[in-house]
Amino acid sequence: MSERATSTGKAGMNLTLKIWRQNGAADRGQMVTYQVDDVSPDMSFLEMLDVLNERLTLEGADPVAFDHDCREGICGMCGMVINGVAHGEQRATTTCQLHMRHFRDGDTITIEPWRAAPFPVVKDLVVDRSAFDRIIQAGGFISVPAGSAPDAHAVPVPKADADAAFDAATCIGCGACVAACPNGSASLFTAAKITHLGLLPQGQPERASRAKAMVEQMDAEGFGGCTNTGECTAVCPKGIPLDAIARMNADYLKTAGK
Amino acid sequence: MAVTGAVLVLFLVGHMLGNLKVFLGADSFNHYAEWLRTVGEPALPHRTLLTIVEIVLTLAVVLHMWSAVSLARRAAKARPVKYAARVKPQAGGYATRTMRYGGVIVLLFVIWHLLDLTFGVVNPEGGSATPYDRVVADFAPGRWWVTVFYLVALVMVGLHLRHGLWSALQTLGLAHRYRALKAASTVVSVVLVAGFVAVPVTVMIGVVK
Q1: Which residues of chain A are within 8 Å of residue B172 when distances are taken between CB atoms?
Q2: Second label for A105, Cα 20 to 30 Å away, from A9, A57, A151, B23?
Q3: CB-CB: which of A31, A116, A230 is closest to B78?
Q4: Which CATH superfamily is domain A129-254 in?
Q5: CA neighbor of A21 nearest in space, from A12, A13, A31
Q6: ipTM, 2 decimals?
Q7: Which residue of A has its CA nearest to B76?
């Protein structure tokens, strides 16, 4: 399968991959070097790993475990630190939507899992992000009476609030913010959820208690403290703005002493 | 971090404005220093204002450092396994990355600065000279290295403020207008540093003598 032309006219690339391999949480883990040849620039990053895994499987070796699901950039399952940047250097892009055309023939690519104590490695590049689920369970919901759906225009929402809430709601919970934060803080994720619900009328009754519960859960999970470095928003595939963290802080401070 | 930082910034504003009195002449500058010690007398005891300021600042510095150390410790605990690849910062923010070591440098500078112009221990005129004479002797052209040291330290202070000011607003939940507040933080930092830098530089080049 060599000399195969691709639609972009670039020939296949030969890449050296340094991948974190760790066989379960108890294993110490180490970086292992692989060679992948004839990589098409049209492939996504995950398809490139699929090619490696097919070969490893055929060779009887253990394929590299990584999380993925929709491969359309909307589910939040995939994510790895590529050359020291969460989801790679392409901005506002999940790993599955990162394409190999951003790499060059002969490149060495270092691939690591999200690194954070609350995200223990399950295997290789797969980490357990249940900590995020527990933050959501602590308060990332609204309590509404069940029954038939209310009229869509029964509760008016100002356009600006609807837009800002929607921007925050685009968070897919991938965890890149934690992976990129020099403090290992989950503030952007938590703030996105708090902003999303806190800007809408339906979220008002529980606004303060939600912020308190979610921030306390975030701290209890062992995430670091926010020092406003902005690394999170820079790598966020959805570009969740840093303003969200200010909103979270404002809501949280209202509950101080309560 | 934010509250103690805000206290320190308020002090810096007053300190910078006070320093500028050096351009109004020796009498004005010395009289200002004297006034700081005698303000409120005889209703208040000698040095009431200064003592209060000293206590508040010491507390603020200690609590500021305590916050910084606990944040750094939490960060270390939250990422026990480091990345193998060199992490490439994506947010720019040179000032942001200088906060921790920059803070230590600023602390060392403050210690030197107190020994120099407050206690006069390392000042050529000693502690008994008037404040104006101490300043002029300190930054004399022959002692250019002292001026250079102050300039470097003040730039570190400026970088620290540039991130610190905006970050404090963000922490206190006030930073909804991201760009405007970030720009305002930069302007305030530059004005403060320029005000501080003005004194040693003008003394060194002989404008103030």
Answers
A1: 249-250, 253
A2: A57
A3: A116
A4: Alpha-helical ferredoxin (1.10.1060.10)
A5: A31
A6: 0.92
A7: A183
